[in-house]
Structures are given as C-alpha cells and as structure tokens.
Write a structure and sequence with these properties.
globular; about 190 residues; single chain; mainly alpha
Length: about 190
Amino acid sequence: MAAVVVTVGGVRYAGAGGPGVVDARVQSALYGVGQPWRGVALVLDFLGEPVGSTLLVVAVVIGCLLGRRPRGAVLVVAGVGLTVGTATVLKHVVGRTIHGDGNLSYPSGHTAFFTALALAVALAAPRHRGPLVLGGAAVAAGAAMGWAQVALGAHYPTDVLGGWCTALVVVPVTAWSVDRVAESARLESR
C-alpha cells in the first residue's frame, strides 16, 4: 500500500510547483507556528540535515554494537541509506518543487530519514516483536518530522506522506535482505 501511495503521489505531483487542495488546507493549519513550537520544529529539522542525521545514525550504530546487535547496526546503516537514496532519486524523477526551481520536495527526505531510522531501531531492538511497536515508531517519527517540515514551510503535507511511505517500503525490504544475507553467511560458516 505504501508503494502505491508513493507512486500515485509522484504521478499526481510530477513537475508541480505548488500545493494541491489537501496540501493547502493542511498547510494553512500547521504553517507558521510560534515559539516554543518553532524551536522544536527547528531541532527536528536539524536532525534530518546531514550533520544531525549523521550524528543520530552514528549514535544508534554505536548503541547496536555495544548491545551486541551487529545485524541491527547493518540494518540502520543500510535501511536509512537506501531510504534516503530512494527519496533523493524520486525527487529528481518527480520534479515537484517548493519555493521555486531547484527546491525539490516530493518525497520529503527528512521525513523518509526519520521514519526509516525509527523503523530500523524498532526492528533492531531485542524485543520489538510486535507490529504495534513497529507501527508506533513509524507513525510517531513520521508525524513528528512531517509536522516540523510543514510547520517550517519546507514541504507540502503530501511530500511528507510520500517520505513516510518511502521508508515504509524500503526499510522492511532492507531488513528482509539483511536477514537473508546474515542467515546465508551463518549457514556457510558451518
């Protein structure tokens, strides 16, 4: 379903340079928050930028390694990397802009990153086993970063939805792939 949402959104907003009807309504309710919420939005935004996101990924990888969860560390790096890479490619394919040419917006890379990191952490956690935990992590991370991006005017709401769904597609496939490679290596080492 997430792949369908990303695809339909990409087709719908291909080459667009403005908000859709839903975007305009949601954006009018969220854009331009005052303090202290603007400060919260700016912190979240920083965590999706190269320096902030790198610090987060390094911290999580160190935590996985200290917790003797090397497969989790691999999932975090691969899942987040592939999600951000996919979002970046999709931005160039779709070509939707915000605030003029050159500001590609669909799907939101910030939202894709933050959702992917939360999903990877939930999957790497020793006792994640429930879909409620995975779903909760994805919804909370996507909602927080998505809100920040719309509140700051960096993305349209549909960009955020596209970023969230991109992570929902890429991370589970990456987790499955990491597990298959790890199991194969384990079997070969016997």
